[in-house]
Amino acid sequence: RFLVEGQVDPFSLVADELCHIALNVSLPGSIPDAAANAFSALRTRHQRVAEITEMIHVASLLHDDVLDDANTRRGVPSLNYCMGNKLSVLAGDFLLSRACVSLASLENTEVVTLISTVVEHLVTGEIMQMSSTSEQRCSMDQYMKKTFYKTASLIANSCKAIALLADQETEVAVSAYNYGRNLGLAFQLIDDILDFTGSSASLGKGSLSDIHHGIITAPILFAIEEFPQLQEVINCGFDNPANVDLALDYLGKSRGIQRATELAIEHANLAASAIDSLPHSEDDTVIISRQALVELTHIVITRAK
Ligand code: FPP
Ligand code: MG
Ligand code: MG
């Protein structure tokens, strides 16, 4: 009950469901009933992918809140805060185990490999974030790689899995993947901006959790390009609150927030283009679900929390 009411973010569930309709799958079957049955079976399998994605996502957030020592998740007290770290880790493990069983039941080796690799990516992303050298922490290339692993891989590969299960052509699977990849990158870029600004546009209104944990994100990386001396501040670490203030001063004087926002918009636009590149369809339901997928790209970049 706690997970359902408090922690579940239905974002990927919605995206997977919409992908199912957007692909406009036509299944073979000379008898209408047989085609309808095949369609309904595919829909069930697609819903399973959405559930697996959501379970992996929530499992990763439960573990993330332990690693980040977070008190809240989506505005409510986090599970680790209410019940302690031990139970949170086990709750994440439980969801991950359920996701594995559900994934195996799809009996599709390619999809199993794809989604299992996502779990590896989530861990890789977290490790990159916590154990990089100062040079790596200040590299935009490294930041984008880490962002793909920790956020975008899950949605990219689950969208691709939807296409694979529907036996779609490679180009369609690539478009589905590119949609998820770019949506995920845009989402995390905005998340990293909101850590500085919160719901208002002013600097310092966010939780500033990343910088306090020494995590260097896109706004600061862009600010370093304008003020290379900021790198020195970063190298000194953020245990001293004066260093946080200094870094925020440089960020405020720079175009860091603006350039990070522009990068997020660029990825949101690439996600929308991936939907536009899907094979043409006159079907109203398909058109509406594709519009909704494009609408998601706007929601991601205009969200304030
Ligand atoms: C949120 O990032 C965290 C992630 C997107 C991934 C976390 C992954 C792990 C903890 C690896 C373990 C994975 C599994 C499958 C159990 P954030 O802390 O930047 O964002 P937040 O503001 O949502 O906390
Ligand atoms: Mg966190
Ligand atoms: Mg984290």
Automatic annotation (TrEMBL):
GO biological process: farnesyl diphosphate metabolic process; isoprenoid biosynthetic process
GO molecular function terms attached to this record: metal ion binding; squalene synthase [NAD(P)H] activity
Keyword Metal-binding belongs to the record: yes
Keyword Magnesium annotated: yes
Keywords attached to this entry: Magnesium, Metal-binding
Cellular-component GO terms for this entry: endoplasmic reticulum membrane
Domain of life: Eukaryota
Family indicated by similarity: Belongs to the phytoene/squalene synthase family.
Protein name (database record): Squalene synthase
Species for this entry: Papaver somniferum
